[in-house]
Task: inverse folding
């Protein structure tokens, strides 16, 4: 199965565990098979691989998510980077061109496009496989997934199928309705539109060439910022008559808020926390090293990271966005392809950061124009390269780097470093990268 | 006025803002005159000085509080250190001997003993002055403060005066009663026992010599650990017939729990916090640098420090002690006589600490047997002395110190340092102090 996972999203609604770099799909809060924790994207990837161990997975995303994807999934997946955000039609067109021109997928092969973050069981991915098989037959140009509704939601679009069969032609599409109208749709046999599309690769490439003047993937990539924002539904789905829907009767959750996310958690606590016996329906998600003690709370979510601390009634938590917009601070933690960092202290002319490199990983070779840095190695072994000179390092070693000095560090084992940045203008954009000749 | 402030208390009930080093009276959470924040002990000291600017204040306390007292009150107060805890009679006897033998207070001079943490207005301290004047007349051997009760509390002892006059002889004392009995006492005209004693210095010294075999302050100090634990009430008050009570009609709060403390706060937020409009009766006390966002909470206190985070229903917060006992972690922040420190990161073989020295202050000259240390100067200027060698330091300088190496730092301006400790056995007891010859 060829599958494109659309990975978008901002860091607002699940603040403070998400931020401008970490979208919700990268938060580790589900129990994994080995007893550790996994993120939504890790969970989805594991489920896909379980249903089809030869599945070719490509994640369509923005540049800001590439490091997190590599950190969490390694090199097991393809990544198609959108140079900027242009809604779902350009994104799916670009990913389709990537599959064809870079990955060598044939125009007759089926492709399934799916959001990266459904909270579902394995039966969902079995239905993706069915959709892929449906697309391969060529009976319709587009095959969609229709989720059997469990309540008259105002949050989803509806698909009204012609019949109640497992697979049916589509009668009409309906935009997000009010609850009363939603109930009327459901009474007519409507399904939720799950945002899943299956097609033969050539079909979408043809639609793309009709709407956009481009030669191949690279050309489309280069002119991506000139494209008009338009959704795949509007550009393709609504104009297509040869379209069918596959009915999905299983569990499906869209976990975009703390309220829905905590409902999907198998345990009430992730991280260090103590709840006394008078707490009811309380969830704690704690990424700080310090303990959280909860007493006498009801229907509350407590969530903590280096970005901040949220304490919210679960219902109220869906109104979080404007408050997070107002906080507007620098990013305090991030996963990188080579490991992660966390800001520990911010002063007017200094910033202290704990850096962890995974074994075998390295930073880019880089310099800063406006700040000096010192590294104190906390644990592990590796090598630093400073202005071309390589030196082994271990716990207790101190490396000082003046502004302008080129530097990197390579981890042989897991390497933890306390980095102190010093200067009058400390910001993430003060970074020049270099090729390293070894 | 000679006044002895009894400063005891543990760090449990106001966790996480208190810990094993910082008792509740040192938490800064009241608005001070200059718009900043002051602690209970700073507030009380300011109020005493306002009522009597020549008041001689001595704080009777344990060794662990001396640094906090010096940090918050400087050298304006005397400190009488109890070598170990032996209840209030030995503590008051030692402080009385200290006043007589060290401070030169005459045996005929009046002394007032008072808890360090009443949350009161200036009229309370005017009543302490009255008690001092009453003690000076010698009409009774002991003069106590009786607080007019506002409700039938089970938490306080009661004094039943003979008359309803402003000053009256004492009829009887009553132990903490149940609420029903308390109401009966109140109907008889009873007053709360405020734990305040005024006497002529010689009176308590005589009692002390009757009960303890000692010559002077230094002798009493030396044998302090051999003394029996006994309260001043039991050893002195209950055996004295010449005793009177001064009626105090003003506001008086005992703020030993989050519930009572938040009632006394003039603002609902201290530190970085955002409360949405659906929060009701919510207090946030945040000593972390990160923001706390509260949504849809009612009757909740949120309190955060490097020790941890408390989120509690206000009523429930009075049951906090056993949960804090169970957390049992190292101290994560402390005020020192020279400034303060805060633990930022703990790893198996390293600990990273942010150290702030106040201008003109210095650490002890010391070494560690089992750990190396590195200092990166974040801001300010000063001098380090390492194995006898003095060097000026400023932002960006790095000092590395091997285990065994003697070191200190002296702040010329406020000096902030990131200290990384490295070793297999990092603990606060690994410290040898030395005299510094300059």
Result:
């Amino acid at each position: 199965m060829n599958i494109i996972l659309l990975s978008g999203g901002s860091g607002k609604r699940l603040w403070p565990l998400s931020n401008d770099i970490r979208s919700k799909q990268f938060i580790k809060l589900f129990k994994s098979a080995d007893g550790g924790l996994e993120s939504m994207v890790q969970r989805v990837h594991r489920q896909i691989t379980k249903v089809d161990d030869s599945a070719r997975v490509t994640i369509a995303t923005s540049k800001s998510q590439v490091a997190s994807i590599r950190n969490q999934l390694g090199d097991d997946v393809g990544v198609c980077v959108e140079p900027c955000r242009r809604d779902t039609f350009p994104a799916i067109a670009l990913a389709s061109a990537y599959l064809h021109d870079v990955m060598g997928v044939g125009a007759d092969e089926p492709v399934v496009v799916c959001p990266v973050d459904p909270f579902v069981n394995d039966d969902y991915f079995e239905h993706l496989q069915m959709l892929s098989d449906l697309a391969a037959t060529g009976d319709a140009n587009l095959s969609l997934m229709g989720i059997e509704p469990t309540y008259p939601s105002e949050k989803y679009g509806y698909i009204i199928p012609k019949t109640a069969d497992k697979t049916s032609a589509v009668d009409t599409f309906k935009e997000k309705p009010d609850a009363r109208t939603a109930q009327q749709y459901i009474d007519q046999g409507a399904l939720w539109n799950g945002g899943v599309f299956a097609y033969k690769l050539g079909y979408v490439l043809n639609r793309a060439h009709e709407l956009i003047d481009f030669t191949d993937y690279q050309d489309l990539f280069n002119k991506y910022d000139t494209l008009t924002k338009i959704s795949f539904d509007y550009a393709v789905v609504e104009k297509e008559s040869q379209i069918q829907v596959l009915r999905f009767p299983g569990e499906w959750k869209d976990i975009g808020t703390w309220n829905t996310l905590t409902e999907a958690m198998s345990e009430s606590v992730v991280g260090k926390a103590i709840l006394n016996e008078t707490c009811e329906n309380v969830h704690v998600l704690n990424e700080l090293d310090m303990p959280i003690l909860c007493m006498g709370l009801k229907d509350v979510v407590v969530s903590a990271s280096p970005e901040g601390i949220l304490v919210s009634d679960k219902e109220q938590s869906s109104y979080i966005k404007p408050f997070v917009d107002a906080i507007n601070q620098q990013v305090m933690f991030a996963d990188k392809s080579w490991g992660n960092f966390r800001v520990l202290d911010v002063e007017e002319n200094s910033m202290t950061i704990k850096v962890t490199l995974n074994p075998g990983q390295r930073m880019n070779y880089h310099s800063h124009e406006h700040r000096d840095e010192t590294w104190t190695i906390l644990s592990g072994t590796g090598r630093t390269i400073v202005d071309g000179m390589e030196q082994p390092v271990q716990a207790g070693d101190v490396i000082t780097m003046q502004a302008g000095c080129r530097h990197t560090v390579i981890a042989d084992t897991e390497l933890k470093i306390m980095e102190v940045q010093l200067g009058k203008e400390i910001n993430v954009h003060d970074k020049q990268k270099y090729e390293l000749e070894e």
